[in-house]
Structure formats: structure tokens, C-alpha cells
Amino acid sequence: MKRNNLTTSVVAGLAAIAGIASTANAVELNPDGTGQVLVYPYYTVNKNQQTIVSVVNTTNIAKAVKVRFLEGHNSREVLDFNLFLSEYDVWTASVFALTDAGLTGDGAAVTTTDKSCTAPNKSDWTGSLGTGRPYQVFLPYAYTGTHEDTGPTDDARTREGHIELISMADLTGALRTAVTHTSAGTPANCAVVQSIDPANTLLVAPTGGLFGAGGVVNVAQGTFFTYNADAIDGFTTVKLFSDTSSLTPSLAQANTDQVLGVATAYVFGSAGQLIRSDYSTIGAPSNAIDAVSAVFMSNNLFNEYNVDSSVGSNTDWVVTFPTKRFYVDNEILGVDLGDPGAIQPFRYTFGEDATGNGDGLSCAQIEIAQYDREEGRPVGPAPGFSPPPPGQPASSLCKEVNVISFLNVATAPSESGVLGSKLVTNVKPFAAAGWLRLGMNPAGQPHLSRASIDGDVYAGLPATGFEAVNYINTNVSAGVLSNYSGLFRHRASRACTNGTAACS
């Protein structure tokens, strides 16, 4: 699969002309926001918030999509179902806390008023919040009983995490007709698609064209943090349809050439060069997940923070590792709970009994460089999380979804300042406002990906996320308090080497 610089330059030039989104047969993080796979980096129902989710089918092709909700500690699945989108369809839903709806239980649930077909059928969901508002409770089965992973086992573990949508197949013929909306605005016959044989020839390889958005909203407080979902295009060239009892398809099933048995990733390097990295999908284990991780690999994450008391501001950072479970989860890796066996770029299996790790953790060291707005930075030892996680290095991210708050506190906070996250770690702010660099490849614990077939090695960790900042004005007028919320996606740098040279 080795290619020379001329070939790479030509491909890069064509991509620049046609747009990277049009490059065929390669996993890519589409900058235009549409694709076959959508990753929503965060959902939460803490602090009386709800998370709204939408997905839009921009094409005239009907689609079968896997919807999967993953909790934030170890990304164990808390709910999945199949969604069927007709041409130009939109599906929306809201994730809420059971207690906020006056229902029994400490966990989360999803509700929708959307008419698009689902399997299981919405009439088989947990219950109803009223006419046309079915809801389904998130389930703890993947992390309780025989599936315990040393993390929490209560229902509250379902209250925050991230979401992924994976295109499984395009629908043709009678299947397409069944999900197409009639003039009444409802699908023609959802029963037809709720028990499809995966071998049905009317299921064909999925195309792209999906985009999505999420938003964390607190109606009473007037806060609303919105983001676009990450869109992965070129994920699969074959259909990946499965019924509702299966944990597939997954992000580990990337494939771009079935004949050659490879999953190819296209990544823009730090100098703007287009890097092609090929990973084998043949044999066990398959390295297909590395193609997806490659497009999220970050050597550094950058963003701002604001904790200025004069304007009532506070900041949280969400840092999500959307592929981490495939490198650290003992059930996926096939190792005993607590034993080593994590795959690089991660160091510890979840719950590994080792110095620098422990129950309910899979820690990865990072570096923190904090600056104010005038080039100033702390003097003395490199800053870390304050206080550090018990028994952990000063700067470690130990969950699959991590929420970093900027609270000037002496003891570990029980929740983050803006989003109310229980997956919280804290950085004591150096100034009232400034910016932060999270180094994902620290000298003390380097993080390097597995090499591609050609020898490409990415430094850092596969990450996504955003900054959520809120401002409170208590003096709008007598008795009136106003919140002003904003969300800013992280910026990143990449580092890739092949032998002693930079990837090209």
C-alpha cells in the first residue's frame, strides 16, 4: 500500500479541487458535516437539563440507521434501536431524567413525538408521557450482573454519556415504500421494516448524507448549549444491517475495500497535507477501528475558558474519546476484568488493578498548559488537575467522557460548574479568562497509535468535544436574572510520523 509523495500530492490536489467529502472509499471526518456515521460528543440530564437530538436525511434515499446511547464511564451501551428514515426525513428526540418527568427511577430515558419508524416499535417502549409521547428508559444491563466492569452499577450511570448513529443500509423497493411518509405525515407501514431479515436483498450498502445536532437545554434557567454532530463519511462500502438484539454495527466495522481487506483513513496533517493511512480488516483482531480513531487523533486540544466573577461566567470542557472502549474494555478485548491488555494509544484496561489506575478508571496522562489573555502562565511546576484524582498522576483523564471544570476550589467538586457533570475533574483557573492546551502525548506517558500497514503512527488520543461557557446577569432589571450560554468546539493539532519522517 506504500505510495510516493507524487501520488499523495496528486490526491491532495484533487481533494482540494473536489472537496475532501467527495473522496471515495476512505474514512474521513467530513468538514461539511454530512456522512454515514454521526457522533454526538455529549448528552446529559443532570441539573434539570434535557438533551435534544436531531438527525436529517439530506438525500432522496431511504435509510436504516442504528441509534446507540453510551454511558460516559466506559461507553457501555444503555440503549440502542433501529431508526428508518424516509427521503428528506428528520428525526428528533429528547433525553430526560425520569425524576424530572415525575417518574420513578434515578436514570435517564428518551422520548420522541416523531413519526419515523423504529424497531422496536414505539408502542413497545416503556410507557407514555401523554398522547403521542412514548418514552423508553435507559437500561443498565451492559454494566450490571455478569457485565460489571468495576464502574458504578446504579441507574444514575445512564444520566450522561455520548451518542452515535451508524448508517446500516439504504432501503429499496417495498422497504423504501413502507417507510415513506404519506400525505398524512406518517410512514406507510412501519410493520414491514420492524422484522427485516438482514439477508433481504432490498437492503443495499448505505450511502452518506446524514447530518445531526445536539443541544443541552435547561428550560427553567434559560440555558441552551448546542453543537453539530461529528460526521464520518466513507465508513462502509457494504451493508451492515442488524436486528435490534445485536451490538453491531459498531465503529470497529469500518471498511473501504473488501477485496483488499483494508480500512483507509484520510487525515489532514498539521501542514495541511493529506495523509492516507491503511489498516487491515483481515483476521482477528481487525484493526479497522484504527481508521476511525485516526480521524479523531489529536496531539493537542485547544480552547478558551472564562471564569470572571464580574460577569458571572463559568466554563466546562467536554473531552470525549469516542473509540476508547475498543482499546480498553475487557469484554471487547477478551481479557479478565482487572487484568492488563489495553491497546495503544491507551494504557490501562477499564478497572485495571495497576499503579496509576483502579476501579472504574482507565487513566491516560495528559499535559496542561494554561495561559491568560496576555501571554501570562503559572510559574513553577506544570499545572495539573486540582486536586488530582485519588492515587492518579496530577493530569489524567480516566473516563470515556470527561468534563473538566474551572472552579477555584481546594477539594474535588462533586459536579462540574456549568453542566452539572458527575464525570468531573477540575483545573484551578490561573486567571479570570484565558486559554488552555491539553497535550495528548505527554513525555511522561507517550500515547502513540498502532502503526498502519504503511507504518503511519499518530501521536495523541482520539478525542472530540467542546467548551461550554455560561454568563449570569443578575441586574437585567429588578427581579430578573438572565443566562447567556455559548458552546465552542475544540480546536486540535495532529502529529503523524512514518519511521523518522513526517507522514506524507
Textual characterization of the structure:
By secondary structure, the protein is mostly beta strands. Helix content is 7%, strand content 37%. The protein is built from five helices and 33 strands. The chain has helices spanning 5-18, 173-179, 289-296, 325-328, 330-333, and strands spanning 28-29, 37-44, 50-57, 62-71, 77-85, 90-97, 108-111, 117-119, 127-128, 134-137, 160-171, 203-204, 210-218, 223-228, 230-233, 262-268, 274-280, 297-298, 300-306, 313-320, 364-365, 367-372, 396-397, 401-405, 424-426, 433-439, 456-458, 461-462, 464-477, 480-489, 491-493, 496-498, 501-502. Strands 1, 2, 4, 5, 8, 11, 12 and 15 form an eight-stranded antiparallel sheet that branches. A hairpin with a 5-residue loop joins strand 16 and strand 17. The longest helix is centred in the N-terminal third of the chain and has 14 residues, at 5-18. It is globular and about 70 Å long. It starts with a helix and ends with a strand. Residues 1-23 have low confidence and may be disordered.
